[in-house]
Amino acid sequence: MVPTCVLEEWRFFMMEFGELCVMMVGIYQMLQWCVDNWAVVLLKRQRAKLILGEVQDKYDIRLVNGINLCSGRVEIRHNGVWGTVCDNGWDLSDAAVVCRQLGCGAAKEAKSKAYFGKGSGRIWLDNVACTGKETTLKNCSASSWGKNKCGHHKDAGVICQCE
C-alpha cells in the first residue's frame, strides 16, 4: 500500500498545478515507491503475522476483528477451546495485561459492549480484575472459567499502542 504521504503529495500537485507532466511525475513516484518497497512491506506484514501467531499460540490469547494486529476483541483459549471475555469490570488494567502479553506495548483503551463485534461460542472469563502487573490474563482474578451472566453483546476488547 502506498503511504498516505505519497498519495497526499500527488493530490496536492494535481490540485495545485494540474499539468500533465506533474501528474506523470506523481504517478511515476507512486509506482516507483511500490516497486522499491513492495517486498519490504510484504515481508514486514508476514513477519508480524508470524510473530503474533506464535505469541497467540504460546499464550492462548488473541485479538479478533481489530484494525491492526494489536487491537480487537479479546479471545482466550481454555482446554483447547477459544472463547471471549465479558466486559463486566473490564478496564485499562485488564487491557494492559493483554497488550503486554501479546507484545503490543501499552494499552490505549479498554473496549466494552462488543466494540469489535460479537464473538461466538463460549464466554470463558467474567469479572476480570487485573492489577495490571500480571504476565498473562489467566493470572488475573476472575470468576470461575465458563461461569458468567454475560452475553456476547458484552465482549471485551482492547486497543494497544503497537510498539
TrEMBL record:
<dbReference type="Pfam" id="PF00530">
    <property type="entry name" value="SRCR"/>
</dbReference>
<keyword id="KW-0325">Glycoprotein</keyword>
<keyword id="KW-1015">Disulfide bond</keyword>
<feature type="disulfide bond">
    <location>
        <begin position="86"/>
        <end position="150"/>
    </location>
</feature>
<keyword id="KW-0675">Receptor</keyword>
<dbReference type="InterPro" id="IPR036772">
    <property type="entry name" value="SRCR-like_dom_sf"/>
</dbReference>
<feature type="disulfide bond">
    <location>
        <begin position="99"/>
        <end position="160"/>
    </location>
</feature>
<keyword id="KW-0677">Repeat</keyword>
<keyword id="KW-0732">Signal</keyword>
<feature type="disulfide bond">
    <location>
        <begin position="130"/>
        <end position="140"/>
    </location>
</feature>
<dbReference type="GO" id="GO:0016020">
    <property type="term" value="C:membrane"/>
</dbReference>
<dbReference type="InterPro" id="IPR001190">
    <property type="entry name" value="SRCR"/>
</dbReference>
<protein>
    <submittedName>
        <fullName>Scavenger receptor cysteine-rich domain-containing group B protein</fullName>
    </submittedName>
</protein>
<feature type="domain" description="SRCR">
    <location>
        <begin position="61"/>
        <end position="161"/>
    </location>
</feature>
